[in-house]
Amino acid sequence: QRTGKKDADHPVIQKGKLQLNNPHIQSGEEDVLYHIALGNKSHDLPSLFHDVKFVCMGGSPNRMKQFAEYLVSALQVNVPSGMGLTNIACGSDRYVLYKVGPVLSVSHGMGVPSLSILFHEIVKLLHHAGCSDVTFFRLGTSGGLGIEPGSLVITEQALDGLLRPYIEVATLGKTVQHPSRLDPDLAQDLLKLAQTDPECQGHSTYFSKTMCTLDFYEGQARLDGAFCDYQAEDKMAFLRKVHSSGVANIEMESLCFASYCHRAGVRGAVVCVTLLDRLKGDQITTPHEVLEEWQRRPQKLVASYIKRYLSGK
Ligand code: R2B
Ligand code: URA
Asked: What region holds the Nucleoside phosphorylase domain (predicted)?
């Protein structure tokens, strides 16, 4: 059942139990979620996951473990004593997956292909588990454009490296375009929270477009890769053009995340911290401890949102 506004920018959000938009997956048949080492026959997915309401994704396994630990105290969830948090996907070394109450904290690796695989398997997991009304977040890092490093950017729209608002996937020998649409209401709620929540003060938060590239070096107009066939002026002209199109940050997964949230009919938001200002340089030279603190900023905002949602505020 799909309901909701149908204008060009609003995603259509599924109500009730998450249905798959794939007639080939039949509920009685075995479905192996290979990269997270789970399956609908090998595991009792409904009893393990039926209560999940939030999926939080981020690139690094360590950061998503830290986020899970942070959620234990932020949401005051009881973890059986002596057990600690368990990586539920430990049967595979591709991704990590933690469950803290109604929240999944899961790593997606770097780049669109890695996030794409994980996203398919998480949506199937939620479907097999009988979950309903699940909201997805990507908590990431990025390069900023013309904003103070350490700022947060909530993505208004994800664009590709040619500034197009859709992802192109080569499917059966043809290019298929999937539009990237994030939930504008969810983004506005996050923005309001960032401006008012005491946990989220001390840095700026922007609501802007995000450019998603297929590469960290040439894809993001860097001069410091192993190869480079353009000049510093070409780089700056391109970055200024991107900036003047309303883009505040550059990263490598938002486009796939946004278009797959839309295809799955789930609410989604992307919150990234910026690690440097790309109009001023290419290399990330900020000390490790400072970067660690900055990377906790998206986590604090999303944890605050979840906490408020669960307390009914
Ligand atoms: C941000 O950081 C990673 C590259 O360093 C990539 O996963 C991204 O989107
Ligand atoms: N991640 C990116 O993709 N780009 C940056 O510049 C920093 C983090």
From this structure: 53-307
